[in-house]
Write the C-alpha cells for this entry.
Amino acid sequence: MAYDAIWDRPREECGVFGVYDPQAAIAETIYYGLFALQHRGQEGAGMTYTDGTRMVTESGTGLVMDVFPRLPAGTTRVGIGHVLYASPDVVAADSVQPIQGRTGIGEISVAVNGAIVNADVLRERLIADGAIFRTPTDAEIVLHLLARAAGGNMTERLKAALVELDGAYSMVVMTADALYGVRDPQAYRPLCVGRTATGGWVIASETCALDAVGATHIHDVRAGEMVRIDADGPVYLPFTTPATGRKLARSVFEYVYFARPDSVIDGLSVYEARLRMGDILWQECGFTGDIVMSVPDSGTVAAIGYARASGIPYTEGFVKNRYMGRTFIQPTQAMRERSVRMKLNPVAQNIRGKRLIVVDDSIVRGTTSKIIVRLLREAGAAEVNMVITSPPVKYPSYFGTDFSQHETLIAATHSTDEICTAIGADRLHFLSQDGLAQALREVPTEEISFACFDGEYRTPLPKEEHT
Amino acid sequence: MAYDAIWDRPREECGVFGVYDPQAAIAETIYYGLFALQHRGQEGAGMTYTDGTRMVTESGTGLVMDVFPRLPAGTTRVGIGHVLYASPDVVAADSVQPIQGRTGIGEISVAVNGAIVNADVLRERLIADGAIFRTPTDAEIVLHLLARAAGGNMTERLKAALVELDGAYSMVVMTADALYGVRDPQAYRPLCVGRTATGGWVIASETCALDAVGATHIHDVRAGEMVRIDADGPVYLPFTTPATGRKLARSVFEYVYFARPDSVIDGLSVYEARLRMGDILWQECGFTGDIVMSVPDSGTVAAIGYARASGIPYTEGFVKNRYMGRTFIQPTQAMRERSVRMKLNPVAQNIRGKRLIVVDDSIVRGTTSKIIVRLLREAGAAEVNMVITSPPVKYPSYFGTDFSQHETLIAATHSTDEICTAIGADRLHFLSQDGLAQALREVPTEEISFACFDGEYRTPLPKEEHT
Amino acid sequence: MAYDAIWDRPREECGVFGVYDPQAAIAETIYYGLFALQHRGQEGAGMTYTDGTRMVTESGTGLVMDVFPRLPAGTTRVGIGHVLYASPDVVAADSVQPIQGRTGIGEISVAVNGAIVNADVLRERLIADGAIFRTPTDAEIVLHLLARAAGGNMTERLKAALVELDGAYSMVVMTADALYGVRDPQAYRPLCVGRTATGGWVIASETCALDAVGATHIHDVRAGEMVRIDADGPVYLPFTTPATGRKLARSVFEYVYFARPDSVIDGLSVYEARLRMGDILWQECGFTGDIVMSVPDSGTVAAIGYARASGIPYTEGFVKNRYMGRTFIQPTQAMRERSVRMKLNPVAQNIRGKRLIVVDDSIVRGTTSKIIVRLLREAGAAEVNMVITSPPVKYPSYFGTDFSQHETLIAATHSTDEICTAIGADRLHFLSQDGLAQALREVPTEEISFACFDGEYRTPLPKEEHT
Amino acid sequence: MAYDAIWDRPREECGVFGVYDPQAAIAETIYYGLFALQHRGQEGAGMTYTDGTRMVTESGTGLVMDVFPRLPAGTTRVGIGHVLYASPDVVAADSVQPIQGRTGIGEISVAVNGAIVNADVLRERLIADGAIFRTPTDAEIVLHLLARAAGGNMTERLKAALVELDGAYSMVVMTADALYGVRDPQAYRPLCVGRTATGGWVIASETCALDAVGATHIHDVRAGEMVRIDADGPVYLPFTTPATGRKLARSVFEYVYFARPDSVIDGLSVYEARLRMGDILWQECGFTGDIVMSVPDSGTVAAIGYARASGIPYTEGFVKNRYMGRTFIQPTQAMRERSVRMKLNPVAQNIRGKRLIVVDDSIVRGTTSKIIVRLLREAGAAEVNMVITSPPVKYPSYFGTDFSQHETLIAATHSTDEICTAIGADRLHFLSQDGLAQALREVPTEEISFACFDGEYRTPLPKEEHT
C-alpha cells in the first residue's frame, strides 16, 4: 500500500505506538509494533526509549528495517514510536518523530498521527513568545506547549496543552516513567490499547500492531479520552479542546483503504467491512461479468466479497510488483504508462476475452483509473466494469489525506457517467454513501465523517486558511 | 516472495536480463527489466552498459531501487543486468554481477543465473594456469574462459568456453557491440527473447520482464541454444557442452513457486499451471471445509483454483506484512514465533470456528508449517487441512535451490501421515507427481526434472562432491 | 597543535569568525577564515550564511575541509562560522556550532568561543520557563535568551541577553542583515575586526584569519564592547554583564600556546612574545648546552629565541608526524610510549652525546614530559635540560582550557626540583611570572590573568560549583 | 609535505612496509609503520594481513587514520602495507594497494613503490594471453606474472617475474607464510630491514618507520637484492632484470625533499645531508642578509644549516597551516594567491625591513616561487634572496616524480638570472651538482642519478614512449 509517484491518491497516514512494560525489552516491542504499522508510513521511522535513567530518541528516513538495522540493548519500561507518511513536498528527514526535549519536569517525547489545524497559529504565537523550533512537525508544537504549561505534574500539563490543540489527531507522549495516549474529541484517528504477555501495556494506531507484539486488545481509546499508564496501570481521563462538543468524525477512509484488513477499529473488523462493501456494491449495481478482480491490494477484499455475493468467480487480473518504494526513479513522461505496467502487470490469460468486474477503492483524479482500464483492454478484456468501494470524492480533505485540492477532484466537476467515459470504462458504479454507512453498520453513522463525499465538514478551518 | 530467515525453504533464484537496442536509453530498459525480475533475487543487483565507446559496470547489494537511485544518462545499444539471490552463508557484496573484464578482444561482461556443477574443478584449473579471481561467482569463471579461449571472434570464444561448462544455467554475455543469451542443453533455467517497440531486442529470465519494458515475447531460447544479437539482429546457434545429449530437465519449481504468476515459461502460463494444481489437488484429496485460504503469496493462485473446483469459498486467512527484507533483525529464540506472526497475521474473524483448507507450495523441513498450523489454531480454526502444490521433497537439490541437505528434508524420513502429525494438521495432502505433471501438461513430462521428488537426477555430480 | 589522546594538556580553544560583505561570496570567505583558525579546534566546524532571503546552517564533525568538501554557491552579505575544540568527554556531534533558530524577529544564528560560567543556572531557569534545548552548547543558551528578550530590535535584545551572561567568551551573532561581535567585559578571549578588499568587514578570533581572507586589521574589540555591522558599517557599543567592573583578565595562554605565532593579539605579536620568552628564560636560568631544541610546535619560537640569546645553536631534535588527529586509534597501555614516539621521533644524530636545552610550553600532569625525556635519553642525549615558557601550573582553569582538576596538576603538590626528578630531567626551569609579564610587556600586566599560576581568579565561580 | 593543487612540484612518492612477526599483532605494526610513512603518500592506504589461515586486504582512499578507524584483531605473522601518492589525473580509489589474488601456490599480495617502465607492454601481453586486470596498478602486473610464473615455489616465481620488470621500484610481496622485499638493480628507491623487539622483522621504505614500531635498523636492501623472511629468518638473494648491469641510480630527491629528515637512507642521515646542503649553499653563494628563513617544511633543515654556517640568525618567516589536504577546494583563479597565503602566512614583524635569505628545495615551474617572493615583499621584506638546495631542474623525470613534462620546466629554457627576474627575487642561487654530491658524500657519487639536472638517464625508456 505504499504511496508512489504514479498513483493519484493518498495511500496512508502516519502510525503511532507506545509501550509501558517494566519486564520487556521495549525497543524490540516498539520495533515489532512499528513494523506492523509500516503500511501507514514508509518515509521515516523513529522511537524514543528509556531505561528509567536516560531517554534516547533514534529516528531516520526510510523503512523501520532500514532505520533500525539493530536494536539498542537493555531498554525497558517506557517507549514510543512513529512511522512517517510524508507527502511529496515535504522533506522527510525534517519530519521524523518522536520529538524529544528536556522540560522543567524532565525529558518528554511526543509522536503525533494527524493534523492540528491551528498549528500555524500556535507556532507563530510560541515563536513570538520565545520558543525556538527545529522541525516543522506538529509534535514539536505539542512539546513546546508541554514545556510551557503551568502545573506541577505531567497530566495537568498535558491537559493544559490539549486545550490549545484543534484538529484530527491521535498521539503518544512519554516521560521517564509514564506513557500517555490521546485521541482527539472527534475521534478522527484510531487508537487502541492492549495488554502484553509480560503484564505491560501497549498503545497503537491499529490492532494489527497489538497482534504483532502478542498483546491482547483491551480498549479502544474514546473520543476526547486520554490514557495514562504508569506503575499503577492505565487510567482513562477526559480532556477538553476547542473541538470538545463537536460531532464525532471517525475517518471512513481507515475502513476503505488506510488500515490493514486484519485490524479491528472501534469494534468493526476492517476485513469484514470491506467484504460487505463488495456485497453491497453487487446489490447496488448488479454488474455481471465473467470474473471479479481487484486493483491490488486495497480492492482485493471487496472483490472477494463481490464475487461471493454475485457468484461470479474471483480471479487475479493483475500481478503487483511488491518492490516499489518512494525512491523509485521518476519516470519520464514517455515512460509513465510503462511504470504503471511495471507495478501492475495484467495476467493476460485471465483477462483475454473476459467481461471484467474490477474493484478499486476510490477515484480521485481519475488518471490512474484511465491507465488501468487501458492496460486491461490491451490485455484483451471484452468489458471493463469498474466498481468503487467509496462514493465520488467531491470535496477536499484538510487533514493530511493529501487530496486537498478541490480542482483536481474529477468527481467535483463530473457526473459518474462523465467519469466513466473519461476513464474509458464500459460501466462504472460508486458505492453509495448509504451503502458505505451500511457496510460500517457497527459504527453509528452519525459518528462518521463523510465530508469528502458530502462536504459536511465537522471541524471549522482556521480563518487564515479560508482566504 | 522474499527469502527470510524464518522461512524454511528457498524462495528464489537469480534473474538475468539483456538488451540490444540502438534507439533506446538502455540503462532505463535494464532497470525496468531487473525490477520486474526482483522476485528472483533481492540481495544484489547490477548492470553493465555501453554507449559503444566505453563499457561500465555498476552493482551493489540490496534491491534494484536501492542500487540505482538514479540512472546513468546517455547509454545506448548494449547492456546486461542481474538480480542476485544469495543464500545466507554467502557474502552478497562479493557475488554481485555482472562481472566485467578486459580481454584480448576487448571488454566483456557476463551474468549467470544458475549453478555450474564443475565450477570448482574449472576454477582450480584456471588458477593453476595463472588466472587470478576476484569473486566467487560462476560468471567470473566464464569470463576467464572467454579471456583465454582461442579463436578470433567472440562467438567462437563463447562456444569454446561453453564446451567446458556443465550444470544448470542461463546466462547473458555482452561485448561492446553484441549481446548473447545462453541456455544450458538440459534447459534447467528459463530464458526468453522479446522485441522492443524501438526495434531492439531483449533477453530475460521471465516474460514478465518483457512486459515491463513493453517488449513482445518472440522466442523461448531452446535447450543448448545460444542467441547472438548485434546490428544484424538475432541469430540462433547450437553449442556443445558436457551436458549435450542428456535428458532435458526443466525446473518444476519455476511453476510451483519461483516464477511470477504473470510469466509464461516455455509456452505454459504460470498462473494457469497453478490454477490447475489447485484443481487437481481437489480432485486428488477432496478435502472439504468452510473456506479455502492460502499461505501467501505462492499458494494463492492454487487456492483460488481449489476454491473454484470445489465450490468452497476462497477467503484470505492471513494478512502478509510486505515490508520484510533480508536485513530483518534476527529474532531471539523467544521471539521466533512472534516473528512469523509479524509476517503472517491471521484474520481472526475469517478463521474462528471454521474448517480451513490451507494451500501452501511445499514442505521442506516442516518447521514453518508447524508454526502456521499453530497460528491458525490459536485464531480459533476448527480444522486445519493442509494441501500442498508439490509432492513430498525427499531428495536434495544441487542446483542452487538451497535445500541441499538430505537430513533436513522431513519427507526423506517421514510418511505423509507422520508429517501431518508433526506439523499438527488435521489432514495433509501432497499433490502427486502425476498430478503435477498433468498440471504442466503443455510441457512434455519427459523434459521435466522431478529429481527432488523421485531422486532421478539428470546431471551427474562431479566426483569430489560424491565423497 | 592538534589535541591528541597521548598529550597531557589542552591544546586549543574554539575559534569564531564572521563576515558582512555584500560584494563577496561569503561562504568562501568563511571557509578560508575558519581554515586559518583550524588550530583552535579540530573536532567540528560549521557556518551559517544567508543570501538575504534564507538563512542556512551547515556543520559537522572533523576538519573544515572534511565538513565542507564543496561550498554553497551564490551566498552573499552575512555569515558566521565556528571551529570546535571538544574535550574528550564531549560528543562533538552534539556541540558543533553555529546554532540557528527562528525567533520573533526572524532567523538568528550564534557561535561562541569560551565558557559561560553561569550556563547551568541559565539553562535550568530557561527550561523551567519552557525553553527546549537540543544541544549542550552555550550558544543555544544565548539563542534562547535572544528569542525571549523583550525589545523591538536585535541590538536591544542582544544587550538584554548579555546582561545575563557571566564568563569568558567572545561570540559572533547574525541576523539576516546584520553581524554582531561581542567580547566579554574582562577580555578573556581575543576578537578582532578587519576590512576586506571588497569593502566588507570580518570579525575573527585571531588576525591570522584576517590575513587569510586578505583583510586589513582595523580594530581589536575592547573588553565589554559589541560591534554591530550592517549596511551602515560598523558601530561599536558598550554593554553590561555581571562581569562589568571586574578586573580585566586577558588569557596568557593565547600567547604561550593557543594562538598562531603569526597572529597579533591586542597589539602584541605572538611570535615576538614567544621569542622574548626564550630570551628571558636564558636570562633567568642561564642553562648551557650543545644545542637548543623544542618540543614542536609550540616550543619552537621560544627555542629560537633562547638560541639567539644564548648563542647556543638551534637544532631540531624531534621530527613531528603531522598526520595525527583525533580519530587516532587509542593505544593499548603497552603501546603508549610507542605512540609518543610515532608523533615525536628523535633525530638521533642531533641528540647523541649532546647536552640538550629542550624548550616546551608548559608542564601540567608531567606524564608526557617524562616520556619526552626518556626518548631523548634513549637517543643518546648526554644531558636533558628542560626550560618551560610558563610558570608552574598550580591552579585549575575553569574556562574551557581543560586542566580543570586540581589533583592532577603536578606543580600543585611538587616543587620544581621534585618535578625535575619526577620527569627525569637533569635540570628544569620554569619561566617566572614576572618574566612572562615582561615578555608580554605591551599588554598592561594588571589586565592579564595569571590565575593558573597564582590562584588569583578574577571571576567568582557560581555557588553550586564550590560545593 | 602534502601535495596540493597550488604547489608546482611533486611532493612525495608511495611508501611500502612489510612485517613478519609471529609474536606481534601485525595489523597494529603495519598501521604504525604506514603512519610513519604517511608523508610519502596521502591519497590512499592499505594493508594485507594474515593469521596463517586467511589472507585479507583492506584499503581505501585518504589518510591511514581515515582508512583504518579501527584495526582487525588477532592478526599475526605476515603482513604488508602501502601508502599511495596519486598524481591529480589518477583516480586514487582504483590505485590503492596492496593487490591480493589467489594463485596456484596460494594467496599472494603485492605492494609497489615506484614505476615499472615497461608496464604497458607487459599489461598488453598479459591481456592478450588471457589475463584479466581490475586495476591500473603496477602491483597487479607483478601479481599476474607471479600467478603465471613457472616453478614450484614462491622464490622461483618471484625471480621469474622480476626478469620481466624494468624500472625504478621497491616492493613488498607476501604469501601466507613468507614476506619478500625487492629493490631494483639500480636502487632507485630506498628499502631497509629492521628487527622488532618481539624477534620479528620489518621491511620499510624509510628507517623512520622502523623507529615507529620500535625496530632496530639492521640492513639496507642492496641494488638488485631480494630479501625473503620466513620462519627461518631473513635470506638475501640476488635476482636479474632487464636493468641488471646498468649503473646505479639512487634518487637524489629522497635526500632533497622526499624522505623524512629523521630517516637514514643507505647510510646517510637525511637531516645531516640537508644541514650540509645549507652549509655548502653558503660556501657557494655567500649571500648575506638579516635573517635566514625557509619555505617550510622541506627547506627548514637546510636553512638551519645555512644559518649556522653563515652566522646569520635563523628565523621563521612563514607560519604554515598544517590542515591542508588533497580534498582542498580548488580555488578560483582570483583566489589562487589567497590560497598560497592561507598555506603560508608571513610573520610580518620578522620580515618587515629585513634582508631575507630564503631557503627552498627546488624550482620546477617557478609559479609558486613567484608568489612566495611577492608575499614576502608585501610583508615588507627589504631583500628577497632565494637559495635552492638542488640544481636547476632541466630534464623531466620519468619515474613517478611528476615533473614529467619538459616544456613546463622553467630551467629548461631559462638561465638562473632569467629565473631570478621571473620570480622577482633580488638574488637567486641554485646548489651546484658538485655541491649536492658533496652534501651526500657518504653515497658514492657515481651511484646517484642526477638525470633531472644533467639529462644523463640511466634507464632507457621503452620505444613507444620516445615517439
